[in-house]
Amino acid sequence: MVDEHAEYPEFRLRLPNGDGIDRARGVLLDETGTNGSRKFLVRAGSPARDHVMPSLATHFKSPSKRRTELKAQGVLVASTRWPGWLELTEDVVCGSPSFAAVLLVGAPRNGWEEWRTEDGAPLSDYMSGVWAGPNRPWLIRGSNVTGMDLVQRLWLPEGRVSLAASRLRQGVRQGTSKDDLRTFVQEDYESTATYGQKQQLVEELHAFLSRMKPGDTVCTISGGQLYVGEITGEAEQTESEDRRSNLRRPVDWQPTGYPYDDLPEELQQKLSIQHDVVDLSSVQALVEGLGLSDEELAEEAQDIERDPSVEIPALVARRELELPDPTDELAAELLVHDTEWLREVRDLLADERQLVLYGPPGTGKTYLALKLAEFLGGGPEQVKLIQFHPSYAYEDFVEGFRPKEDSKTKEVAFRITAGPLRDLAALAGREGNRHIPHFLIIDEINRANLAKVFGELYFLLEYRNKSLQLPYSGDDFALPPNLFVIGTMNTADRSIALVDAAMRRRFAFVELSPRTEPTSGLLRRWLAKEGKDTEPADLLDALNSRIDDADFRIGPSYLMKKGVYREGGLERTWRTKILPLLEEHHYGEGVDIDKRYGLAALRQSLVRESLG
User: Which residues, 6+ apart, have CB-to-CB distance to 195 below 8 Å?
Assistant: First the structure.
């Protein structure tokens, strides 16, 4: 039986911690199962591990059951050659290379990669018409194909996955190039699909026929469950009258699904992309960790030849995002009256992920935002600051066409350029960064036309587990869970339109006002720290007590600069910084600004209060 398939070499499998035993041996068969899976024969005398992963029977029911049956039949027995190991007494045919590997190892294994020739070439290299490189996960939609749930009707019961190509000519084979597929689709769908639909269909056909390969993971959604399986054979085109599933691949599905609402947010983002075929490589570690505990992942990693200094990707991917607890030292540095106030701001960010610090000028909004972000993010490298202004647009913020000079020809052309939001989102979304908080600080957030600048981000700010297609690049985009936004808003600028209700619903708002802590006592705490006289704080309190409109009260930052405490500095600052603000506030009202708010008047009132 084996000799008939001599065009395939013998493959070997190294068992975990099996340095003192032989490798398992097997061959790939031309024979296929009822769903088209390539069968694999494991030779008699191959060793097997006695220990199995605790959840093997739950997530890999068929190999676990077969293992039990082989033991009962006396085919998988305690080895006399290798004490503590098992051994096959006769050849065993399995449904796929991965099935065979799981059977022997007792833990999840990708047989297409781990069965290797004597010189180390993986089995997947011997499959015709497939792309080189590591296996990857894919999403293929099948719950609503022209009104039918193919997942429940065909895919799960028959061990398949399919793609509808109702008008595609017969004879299209696995490995067909994208150029050929583009020609076929253009001719076969000439009058039945739009230009955009044809482009998308070419990408999906190419992924299904040429990029996918045995050993790849396939995911699909049906009835609120995510189902996961492994592709176990080549693509084929059927002549079935049901054109909803005429391109097919065999799949070994896991027996149970995973509730969609319980999936990690990043995985939900990718699964929300509205295409029939989606490459999930960016969340591969999350997919590979589904259903496995941290202990099982660690055990599995110990069983694989790997660099021990490299962290386990699935464990890194599921690492909880945490914002550190503000310390008393931070409160002292920021001169905040109470560490609990900082903890509340931290908690608001953790819950909402978007926050606005608002108040009159000089209340330290930008300074506080920067310092708090650097503390929570672990350093300035995770913080980006931008400032909105009336001419700021979506193209400046997210992406848009910008003039770019060619470095060689020096010619200028318009090219799609990412804005600061996309740049920071890309940094935050890098593998290894996903548990590290990143902060975008938007200074003067209310000085731009927010609906125009944010565009579809209004949706993404509220629905962080969703993705949207960007209008310029056409890329599918989502906000990483570890990206936080802090805005600052000057409430004294009455030329700015009020922030709309949509914005208020998406952001938590924290007031920084001279009438409340931590701002009201900030200057007094600063003066005490610097060892200076408290008169400037007394004068500021007296000044603000005379200003009826809270949005125009003066913040302490004006009096927290070195120049204020040089000879004549306080008078100069009062005359050139503070009084002009109040003149503008009372413009046209006939108020004598100096008599009401001048230093002389305020000092006299403080003297009367001390005497009274």
Answer: none
Round to whole Å and give the CA distance between 241 and 245: 9
Convert the pLDDT of each residue in 319-357 to its tens digit.
888 999 999 999 999 999 999 999 999 999 999 999 999
CA distances from 256 to 154, 259, 443, 450 (A): 16, 10, 49, 45
Q: What is the pTM of this model?
A: 0.85
CA 77/CA 73 separation, integer angstroms: 9
Cβ neighbourhood burial of 208 (10 Å; 0-12, 13-18, 19+): buried
In terms of DSSP bridges, do strands 383-387 and 438-443 run parallel, antiparallel, or are they unpaired? parallel
Are the beta carbons of 60 and 184 closer than 8 angstroms?
Answer: no
> How far apart are alpha carbons 441 and 453 in whole angstroms?
15
Residue 18's H or E segment, with its range, is none
Give me the residues paired with residue 603 across strands: none
* CA 214 to chain CA mean position, Å: 27
Q: What one-character-per-residue DSSP string does 206-226 give?
A: HIIIII--TT-EEEEEETTEE
The answer to whether the Cα torsion of 96, 100, 103, 105 is positive or negative is negative
Phi-psi domain of 224 (left: phi exceeds 0; alpha: psi -120 through 50; beta: other) = left
Place of tokens 């007031």: 511
Q: How many residues comprise the chain?
A: 612
